[in-house]
Design goal:
61% of the residues lie in helices and 5% in strands. The protein is flat, with a radius of gyration of 35 Å.
Length: 997
């Protein structure tokens, strides 16, 4: 092999997902795999696992552990010939280091994965009992347990079973294991076994038939004396058996442990006796039990020992469970318990806590259990111990919206699956999402996220926790629960203190002010107040989903005060499905959209359902006739431009509202997955709107000064992001002006008229008013600020022929006529095409000059004190890096590649990819960074109401930018890390392409 060249095997291993191809190559070349090293099916199968390196290492260890050459050959032959075994075995080895260790210690256990009969696909308690039947002591029980676990894990990682079926199988295996452990304990103490009846009641996830790979198995013990035995002696004997059974499962042996058996859910917890009689249990529950104990009993299920006694226990406690909701303070008790769980999580772990953190598994389980206890007393269909079954029953009974239930189901399945994969790796009890990149990569691949497993996993996790958090709060804090639970006559009303606590729990920073707003909106007996009382519980949840719920509620009060007397406003919010949620999103997403709305509150009507067109951008073809008609009706230029600016304000609101709704997602429409499409929609809408506004202003100025005909033909050429159809909410309009005297008009008169048009347009578009100004920036004209504001076409031709600099050719790449005389605009483009698409491309001197200009710009224009890595325009991997890289490709190659002759950055990037000038991977890297930086700039303007190129420093504003970008509360750090990571990759590509590094 040539020095410095990588082998084809090395490259193939990289392509198949190996992260240590050198180590993998050594293992594949070793003696253990010699007979099959050239067989392609092995490499394909390894590449399909969650961690190919881990799978290969485990396979080699298993082969090394085979007792003789015959066993070694049998394993290899079966592995290559039998796809079911190959997928199962390698799938387990690639997902679980702990099960790989088990197979290395027990090298014949791989044969458990060979059979693939129908009854193997979904085993139950009976099949697992057969698998454990030969275990006679704690050590052999552990070996047999792991052997059964091996088959469950294989079905899980291969997708033969879904997450609910896997959890049920784990619960069935736990049931069989408890029975086997109790049998070992009874065999060790037959005298004790003869004295008592002992029932083992599974609680928690085992009782609910939804167990994890590694979890405490919660139990309660019920004991009774055998016929003729003394009760006290019988209970002591039962306690000995129960303790021994727990030790058999929990203690560590040479084969490790199985899982802890936890009896702390029993009456009085760890302070109470381990075993009680049925009558003793009932006496406690009737007199002393707390709300959480009835909630725990939802999942009680007899699993081992005297099943008849266990069934008697369930029959006796069931009526108590389903009347628990009638107890005083039931709902607040449950809510306090949930808050206490969250508060007990260490601060350093709360963001990685999959089970107990905000938007975690416990949120779903608590919400479902609370609704079960409230409604299950009158509806037996809700009385399931399994979370997903109960959720399905709640939706079927109308207690939860079907769409909400479907989203919760999807999120819960994802979170449980992630929890399973985390625990399966080491078979350790944990609910923390790892922060190591290799662990995240393995987890992402195990969930089918192969293209970008780390970012894909984190994105999906954030999405699902966001769904859970929002829906959990909507269900969990809904005040109707209090009314349903207490069944009090008349209207139930939260106390002010309880209302404040609820608002704080929902994220309101100033609950006192929020209560004042609610009182002002909903107090009284008017029809308006009644409608508000219907709307507000839902609106509060939507406001709570934002980074600034207080601002959302305050803005809603302002809009309601302004429109409250109009007949259509509250009717729109009540009757149009999307209007209320769209309004909630818009009012709580930042300052820009509410400010635009407050200046003309009737624009709320755009947020309604209608035919879905309310928030659709209208495009220039729809806008320009409306603006020109308004200008035509005006008495003077000032009135005409005021009308044009009014349309611009309304359309800016339409664009911003659509952007916010698409970015946040709504009940009916999920978040727009294509971030580039969001950027393109905003860029096109704002650019079209700016062009239409300039066309209307030009018409108004010409009409006022010269009637129908200006003494000179006049065109406006869009430059920069305007010419590229990439304007953001806070962008100036970069333009150059060109004119050409009409026949018979002198140069001096034409120039004076053109200059007056320009100055009057700039003045009118910046007049103080309720509408946002439109700033015209003509600094990209020849000679910059030193040159005349407007030139004739001949003057441009003379200048470009004699004086044009390379930076001007680069700037002209974005030039496109946007208003005025279309023929003059076309001829201007014909004039500049040879400059911006030079024949044979740029010379070396020109390329060096562009590189020098970029380096100087980066060093001189970055604001003092700004973090370069977070500056969206001038920072590494930001807009400037991507745009200059693309523009250099255009200047060098557009003469030969027509696809590069476009003013739009993303279009030019795609054309460069199609022409083979840049790889697909590098194209995706640059495009992702450009889209993200543009989204951040748009977000900053939406949130702060003023333009900015860096992330805000205020924590609420930063959280609002994060929310717009898809990050839930508390994940601003993840957002900044993702931005740095994305732009770092883009910088590497830009340096390679721009500097030929």
């Amino acid at each position: 092999m040539t020095p410095g060249r990588r082998s084809s095997t090395f490259t193939r291993l990289l392509r198949h997902g190996f992260t240590d191809p050198s180590g993998a190559e050594r293992l594949l070349d070793g003696a253990e795999l010699a007979p099959v090293r050239s067989d392609p099916v092995l490499l394909e199968a390894l590449g399909a696992t969650a961690d190919p390196d881990l799978a290969l290492g485990g396979l080699v260890r298993l082969l090394e552990a085979q007792p003789d050459p015959t066993a070694h050959r049998e394993l290899l032959d079966t592995l290559i010939a039998a796809k079911p075994l190959r997928d199962r075995l390698l799938g387990v080895l690639g997902a679980s280091a702990a099960l790989a260790d088990h197979l290395a210690r027990h090298p014949r256990d791989w044969a458990e994965l060979v059979t693939y009969e129908p009854h193997d696909l979904h085993p139950g308690v009976a099949e697992f009992e057969r698998g454990l039947s030969e275990a006679t002591d704690p050590v052999s029980l552990r070996v047999a347990y792991r052997r059964c676990l091996l088959s469950i894990a294989a079905r899980d990682v291969c997708g033969t079973t879904d997450v609910a079926q896997t959890a049920a199988e784990l619960a069935d295996l736990a049931t069989a294991t408890l029975r086997a452990a109790l049998a070992v304990a009874r065999a060790a103490a037959p005298e004790d076994a003869a004295l008592c009846r002992l029932a083992v009641i599974a609680m928690g996830k085992c009782g609910g038939h939804e167990l994890n790979y590694v979890s405490d198995v919660d139990v309660i013990f019920v004991g009774e004396a055998a016929d003729g035995a003394d009760e006290a002696k019988a209970l002591r004997a039962a306690a000995k058996l129960a303790s021994h059974m727990m030790r058999i499962c929990s203690e560590t042996t040479v084969e490790g442990s199985i899982w802890p058996v936890d009896a702390n859910l029993r009456p009085e917890g760890r302070n109470g006796p381990l075993v009680r009689t049925l009558s003793s249990h009932l006496a406690y529950y009737q007199r002393w039990a707390k709300t959480w104990e009835f909630q725990a009993l939802l999942k009680a299920r007899p699993v081992a020992g005297d099943i008849e006694l266990g069934e008697e226990y369930i029959s006796a406690v069931e009526p108590l469970v389903w009347t628990a909701a009638e107890r005083e303070n039931f709902v607040p008790d449950v809510q306090k318990m949930r808050r206490r769980v969250v508060e007990n999580i260490p601060a350093a772990e709360v963001e990685r806590e999959l089970k107990l953190g905000p938007g975690g598994l416990r949120d779903v389980e608590f919400a479902v259990q609370l609704l079960q206890l409230v409604h299950g007393r009158s509806d037996p269909a809700l009385r399931s111990g399994t979370t997903l079954d109960a959720l399905e029953a709640l939706a079927a009974g109308g207690y939860v919206g079907r769409a909400d239930a479907a989203r919760l189901d999807e999120a819960y399945r994802f979170l449980r699956c992630l929890e399973h994969r985390i625990q399966l790796y080491r078979l350790r009890r944990t609910h923390l999402v790892p922060d190591d990149e290799a662990d995240l990569r393995r987890l992402g691949r195990s969930l089918g996220l192969r293209t970008d497993p780390v970012d894909g996993l984190l994105r999906e996790w954030r999405r699902h926790t966001g769904v859970v958090r929002r829906l959990h709060e909507k269900l969990f804090y809904r005040p109707l629960l209090d009314a349903v639970a207490q069944l009090a006559p008349g209207e139930a009303r939260l106390s002010p203190e309880a209302a404040r606590e609820r608002l704080v729990a929902l994220g309101y920073a100033d609950p006192a002010a929020a209560l004042r707003h609610l009182e002002a909106l909903a107090a009284g007996v008017t029809r308006k107040a009644a409608i508000q009382r219907t709307l507000l519980p839902v609106l509060l949840g939507w406001f709570a989903d934002s980074a600034d719920p207080d601002a959302g509620l305050l803005n809603f009060r302002k809009v309601s005060d302004a429109l409250g007397k109009t007949p259509w406003y509250l009717r729109l919010l009540r009757d149009e499905g999307a209007a209320a949620e769209n309004l909630a999103r818009v009012l709580s997403a930042g300052r820009l959209a509410p400010d635009l709305l407050m200046r003309a509150p009737e624009a709320v009507a755009l947020l309604g359902d209608g035919d879905g067109a309310g928030l659709e951008p209208r495009g220039r073809a729809g806008l320009e006739p409306e603006i020109l008609a308004a200008v035509g009706r005006a008495e003077n230029a000032e009135q005409g431009v005021t009308a044009a600016r009014g349309v611009r304000r309304r359309e800016l609101f339409r664009t911003a509202a659509a952007d916010i709704v698409d970015s946040y997602g709504t009940e009916a429409n999920p978040v727009e997955a294509d971030q580039g499409a969001l950027v393109d929609r905003v860029g096109a809408a704002v650019s079209d709107l700016t062009a239409a506004t300039l066309a209307g202003t030009l018409r108004a100025v010409v009409r006022a000064g010269w009637g129908d005909t200006l003494p000179t033909r006049f065109a406006i050429i869009g430059m920069g992001r305007f010419g590229g159809h990439e304007l953001g909410y806070g962008s100036d309009a970069d333009v150059v002006f060109v004119h050409e005297p009409q026949d018979g008009v002198g140069d001096h008169e034409a120039a004076a008229a053109a200059g007056k048009v320009v100055s009057e347009m700039r003045r009118l578009l910046q007049l103080p008013s309720a509408d946002p100004p439109l700033l015209i920036d003509a600094d990209l004209r020849p000679e910059g600020k030193s040159g005349p504001l407007v030139r004739t076409l001949k003057s441009y031709a003379a200048y470009y022929r004699r004086w044009s600099l390379v930076w001007e050719s680069q700037a002209l790449l974005r030039a496109e006529p946007v208003a005025g005389d279309a023929d003059l605009g076309r001829r201007f483009i014909e004039l500049i095409d040879p400059l911006r698409y030079p024949a044979e491309g740029l010379g070396d001197d020109a390329v060096r000059e562009i590189r020098r200009l970029k380096a100087r710009m980066e060093s001189e224009r970055l604001p003092r004190g700004a973090d370069p890595k977070l500056h969206t325009k001038l920072g590494p991997g930001g807009l400037s890096d991507v745009e200059w890289t693309v523009q250099l490709l255009q200047l060098r190659h557009a003469w030969a590649e027509p696809g590069l002759r476009t003013t739009r950055t993303r279009e030019a990037l795609a054309a460069a990819r199609a022409a083979g000038l840049i790889s697909a991977e590098d194209t995706a890297t640059l495009d992702e960074a450009w889209v993200l930086a543009t989204r951040v700039r748009n977000a900053v303007m939406l949130v702060r109401g003023r333009a900015g190129d860096t992330f805000p420093t205020d924590s609420r504003e930063l959280a609002a930018v994060g929310r717009y970008l898809g990050y839930t509360s508390g994940h601003a750090g993840d957002m900044l890390d993702a931005y740095r990571r994305t732009t770092r990759r883009a910088r590497t590509v830009a340096e390679e392409l721009f500097y030929d590094a």
